[in-house]
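Notes to self after the Tuesday call (sharing in case useful).
The group wants a holo model before anyone commits to mutagenesis around the pocket. I volunteered. Ligand is pyridoxal-5'-phosphate. Logging inputs and output together so the record is complete.
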Amino acid sequence: MENARRHFLRTISGVAALPAIGSVLTREPRTGLGAASSTDVRGQFPLLRDSMNGRPLVYLDSAATTQRPRAVLDTLDTFYLHENANPSTSLHALARHSASLYDEARATVARFLNARGSGEIVFTRGATEAINLVASSWGGVNLGRRDEILITVSDHYSSLVPWQLAVRRTGATLRIWDVSDDGHLRLARLDTLLSKRTKMVTFPHVSNVLGAINPAKEICERVHRAGAVVLVDAAQSVPHFSVDVREIGCDFLTLSGHKMCGPMGIGALWARRELLDAMPPFQAGSNMVHEVELESAPTRFAEGALKFEAGTPNVARAVGLAAAVRFLESLGRKELWRREQEMTEYALASLSKIKRPRILGPTKASERISVFSFVVENGKPLDVAALLDRLGVAVRAGDLASLPALKRFGVTAAVRASC
Ligand SMILES: Cc1ncc(COP(=O)(O)O)c(C=O)c1O
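Result:
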């Protein structure tokens, strides 16, 4: 691979979309450990210094999972080295500290999304569990045989299959919303798909295959006018630009920690508090209920988000997610997005000069994030990924957990390079 191209790939693979050096890293990690120099932004991601197959690593698989900056790794270490305890507000000092860290993490995520309060943030294992929670709990009491759920052809399996199973349980019907040839949801068709029967609409804020940014606010307004409830799968948008639940006006929004520089196995559901209060528990166990008697199942549960967090919470990962939020904010979200747009423009222009790959999704940088799924004429996606792997370039290939989206563009597999 030519040097210039490798340099370009290495730049976009790490923390390319970063503000001008200097505004970065003014904030010390919580522990004060491991801060890289302000001129070494990429150096904050220890794993990006590694090599793969004997070549310097070019990591272009961030849509699958991002790497973690030192600030997040240190936070996790500190938790287990000095702060670990099963949280409790009424026991020993360590337990109280753990409880306050968990509360702070919830407050941080609430602020990050501009929620009305911490009680609207339910910690989950990831975006998948958050969507399952809604499909099971909300779906269980709100869906019936005459109802319809509108999903999209560009949904990730994690926001498609929970609704397929909900339909099986409740007898409701699934309707499918298509995308245009440039990968955007067909807004012109929305009103004809919505009817009095529509109870739930769910769509990806940004498609993990097409990279297209969907106009969430407008969609939510139109869904509400039709009297339905709307869930925004923000797993691929939150890592890239600011997402404000009040501005969007949705009812549910889900995010994934490991796609935004946080730990794996943590995510969050944001929900309007009235909806959460009206929903039955998702799972049952300790912490979501107190003073349980043998003879009768409880009918009173913990308030707000806590009703949905049965068992010992994953405090370390919640605290790690909050560290990831602080990390992203310390980079300056607007500046981060501006730099990403520059990278996207550059990548689209560079890729368009090469004849063979066909890029799926919008061709304008302003309409997409830096996730590039492509197919290569006469090249099987898995072979392309294997070849790049040998060159030290990590990309994803296959059905990208979104076969319907790929089929919409006439393929069953693609290569995806994501920054
Ligand atoms: C758009 C989208 N939604 C949901 C998910 C699932 O997220 P998680 O891994 O946190 O369960 C993904 C993961 O790839 C995704 O890209």
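Two things stood out.
The chain has two domains: 3-67+334-418, 78-328.
The two ends are 19 Å apart (CA to CA).
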